[in-house]
Each structure stands twice: as structure tokens, then as C-alpha cells.
User: Which sequence fits this backbone?
């Protein structure tokens, strides 16, 4: 089969590696891809974030007789790439624009949760800054408050404010100074829930669903969850927390309600749904939906998959997922992100990446994100550069293995967290 993957991150490299494990794969393409992906697939230099270029992607798939396209990131999904491809008779795995609204509009997702009785933090929506500020005036002075931009903000749209004044300042920044552009035209003010988070990735054809092993992401840049939020600095799966206090069962009740809601709304949803939960006193609440595989959760979860990903995509496209048994390795996987020093703020690029050739144990995988390949060498060209994932039959060995591999890689200003998955040892 011939497959086109859309995207350019570590997540897409993990998806490409998984497709290549299948005996059914003949040719693999990735638009736009990255340095690492160029070693295992053909990179396609077409923009994926511009609606007016969807016709170029569609023409590419027709010309190259692509059997189906798999979409990694949220922007093309929110712009309606699935609707465009399907209108042109092309097979594509991902939700329609309607389904992607579960991620692209936080207000829509909260209304969906309210409608389908899905537990989530209490909230109010605002389109007028004065109404938002008046509402905050009625809150307790030292109350923690969450302010969220409605639209897509590349992971920068959620603010946990420690006081009413900080929340008012944040509302001014978003709605008056427009620091997030049109993503902040409407906002949500939400009660703060404290607790650990769990990420559930779910394959669904819109009728049936299959839940992947629960994972945990590490969003802050530094150890002990210090410093600014990032796209994610590492992940591990399955998260031992999910196996405590019946959390997997409680999560499944929530996921069933979400899929029933998707059906009731007649949403065309064929792909991956990400449900982000926060756990307070053993009760899960939905923090957010994403309409795709998570990054870096995918780099931890997919290496545990034992069933052919092409077979899963076929079942999703034919709405036969309910008849497919999906198997997972009974192992733990830990994935550590190596980033450019300075990220998520300013950073320099163009440094040679050394030591990748030293990684040759069969339980460790390298996923590229911000890399380019030139004259036989890899160079940094982004914030998050690589994810290194190791598997083992227990979490401690997986942690030791991944860090021993990470230590053999070097690029100037390289930064990584030293504590990925350590909390799992205490759970
Ligand atoms: N890891 C969070 C996300 O993919 O958005």
C-alpha cells in the first residue's frame, strides 16, 4: 500500500515507523516530514497548514495513487483537510472539521461536555472583556483561576492564575492586547482543579472505539515541573496511576459518553481522539480534547502497539473497528525529549547532532522532530529536536535504559529533563 502521513514532528516519525513495520507497506510519503523521516520515507514539500494548498496535497495523492492519508497535527484537521479530501473521493484518517472543533474551540468542547454529562471543571464563557472582568470581581481575591483562550494557540492558550488580579491581567492580555490573536476573541474562565493528569488516546471510527494504554506527559521545561510550559518534554506509558482506584474503568465510562455524543451529533470522526483527564481525589475530570495523536505521548504509546497500524487504519476507514482486536505489548515505555537550550523561548539552531549511531539496542527508538539532514549529517532546526524511547518489562529499567541512551547523544545547548517517569516509581 501507499500511504501519505501529514506532519513533521516526533509524533509523525513514530507514526511513519509504525506503518513501516507492516508487511502491507509499499511506499511511504510524509508532508512535509523532517530530517529523520527523510531517511525512511519520501518527504513531500507541500504546505499542510494552508487551505489553498489542500488541492496540491490532493493532486499529489491522486498522481501517486496513495491508498490513504493519515493526518498527524491539528491545524490541517481544524481547517477541514478531511472534508476536502473526502469531497474529492480520497481516503483519509482523521476527523472532519466538525470533529476537530472538539480541539479547535474550547467553548464548543465545554458545551459538548455539558450536553453529554461529561465531568469537567465548572466554567463561564465570555466574548466581552468587561463581562469577564466583572465576573472576576466577584471571585475570591486569592482564588486560583484558569483562563483559557477559545481557539488554537499552539499550547499557549491556558493560564493558571494564582489570584483574581493575575486572572484580570491575563484577560486583559488576551482580549485587549490580543497576545494570542484571534484565538483569544472568546475566552473561558474556569475553576481550578488540582491533581495529576492522564492522557488517553483512542482509535475510533465514530461508532466503535479502542483505548490505547494511558500515558502521562511532562509539560514543563525543567525537572520537578518547574519553568514554562512546552509542547511536552517526555511521556511514559502505561501510566501506573491509571491502574489505581479504578481510574481506567472510570475513564472508559467517560470515553463511552464522548463517543455516544459524537454519534448523537452525527460527527464524521474517523481517527484518533485524545482525552486529557485531571484526577482529583480519585475522580477524573476532562481537561481537554485533542482531535489527534498527542505529542510526545505517541512516541511512548505507539512502540507498545503489536497490531498492524495499517490494519487499524483500514478498519477505521471501513467503520469496522469494533471487529478488530488490538494488542499491546505488556511492557513499559519511557520517552525523553531532547530540546534546544532556550526553548520554549529563544534558541539557536544549526548545530550538528552527534552520537545517534551509538544507539543500537532493539528496545530503543529515535524519533526526530526539529532536525534536518544535510551532507550525511543531522542538524538541529527547531525547539524540540528528538524523542528517545526505550521499552522494558518494568518502568525502572525503561527509565535507566532511555537515559543511558540519551547520554550518548550530543548537540550544542542540548536540554532535557532528567526526571521523566520518575513519579511512576512512587505510584
Ligand atoms: N501532549 C499534549 C498534546 O499533544 O497536545
Assistant:
Amino acid at each position: 500500500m501507499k500511504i501519505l502521513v501529514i506532519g513533521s514532528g516526533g509524533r509523525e516519525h513514530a507514526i511513519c515507523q509504525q506503518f513501516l513495520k507492516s508487511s502491507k507497506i509499499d511506499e511511504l510519503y510524509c508532508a512535509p516530514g523532517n530530517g529523520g523521516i527523510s531517511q525512511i520515507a519520501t518527504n513531500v514539500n507541500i504546505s499542510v497548514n494552508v487551505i489553498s494548498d489542500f488541492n496540491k496535497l490532493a493532486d499529489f495523492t491522486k498522481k501517486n495513487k496513495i491508498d490513504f492519508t493519515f493526518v498527524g497535527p491539528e491545524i490541517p484537521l481544524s481547517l477541514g483537510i478531511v472534508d476536502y479530501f473526502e469531497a474529492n473521493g480520497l481516503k483519509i484518517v482523521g476527523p472532519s472539521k466538525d470533529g476537530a472543533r472538539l480541539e479547535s474551540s474550547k467553548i464548543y468542547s465545554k458545551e459538548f461536555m455539558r450536553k453529554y454529562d461529561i465531568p469537567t471543571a465548572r466554567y463561564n464563557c465570555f466574548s466581552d472583556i468587561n463581562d469577564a472582568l466583572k465576573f472576576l470581581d466577584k471571585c475570591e481575591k486569592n482564588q486560583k483561576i484558569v483562563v483559557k483562550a477559545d481557539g488554537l494557540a499552539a499550547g499557549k492558550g491556558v493560564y493558571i492564575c494564582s489570584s483574581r488580579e493575575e486572572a484580570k491581567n491575563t484577560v486583559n492580555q488576551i482580549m485587549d492586547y490580543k497576545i494570542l490573536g484571534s484565538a483569544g476573541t472568546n475566552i473561558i474562565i474556569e475553576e481550578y482543579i488540582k491533581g495529576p493528569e492522564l492522557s488517553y488516546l483512542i482509535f475510533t471510527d465514530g461508532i466503535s472505539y479502542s483505548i490505547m494504554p494511558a500515558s502521562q506527559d511532562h509539560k514543563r521545561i525543567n525537572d520537578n515541573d518547574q519553568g514554562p510550559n512546552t509542547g511536552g518534554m517526555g511521556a511514559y506509558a502505561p501510566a501506573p496511576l491509571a491502574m489505581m482506584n479504578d481510574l481506567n474503568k472510570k475513564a472508559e465510562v467517560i470515553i463511552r459518553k464522548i463517543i455516544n455524543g459524537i454519534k448523537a451529533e452525527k460527527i464524521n470522526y474517523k481517527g484518533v481522539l485524545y482525552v486529557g483527564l485531571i484526577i482529583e481525589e480519585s475522580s477524573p475530570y476532562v481537561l481537554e480534547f485533542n482531535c489527534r495523536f498527542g505529542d510526545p505521548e505517541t512516541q511512548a504509546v505507539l512502540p507498545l502497539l503489536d497490531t498492524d497500524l495499517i490494519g487499524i487504519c483500514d478498519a477505521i476507514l471501513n467503520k469496522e473497528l469494533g471487529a478488530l482486536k488490538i494488542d499491546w505489548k505488556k511492557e513499559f515505555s519511557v520517552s525523553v525529549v531532547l530540546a534546544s537550550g532556550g526553548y520554549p523561548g529563544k534558541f539557536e539552531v544549526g548545530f550538528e547532532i552527534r552520537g545517534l549511531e551509538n544507539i543500537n539496542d532493539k528496545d530503543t527508538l529515535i524519533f526526530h522532530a526539529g532536525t534536518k539532514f544535510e551532507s550525511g549529517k543531522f542538524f538541529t532546526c527547531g525547539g524540540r529536536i528528538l524523542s528517545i524511547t526505550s521499552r522494558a518489562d518494568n518502568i525502572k529499567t525503561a527509565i535507566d535504559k532511555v537515559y543511558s541512551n540519551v547520554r550518548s547523544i550530543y548537540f550544542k545547548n542540548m536540554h532535557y529533563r532528567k526526571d521523566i517517569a520518575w513519579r511512576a516509581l512512587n505510584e
About this structure: DSSP finds twelve helices and 23 strands in the chain.
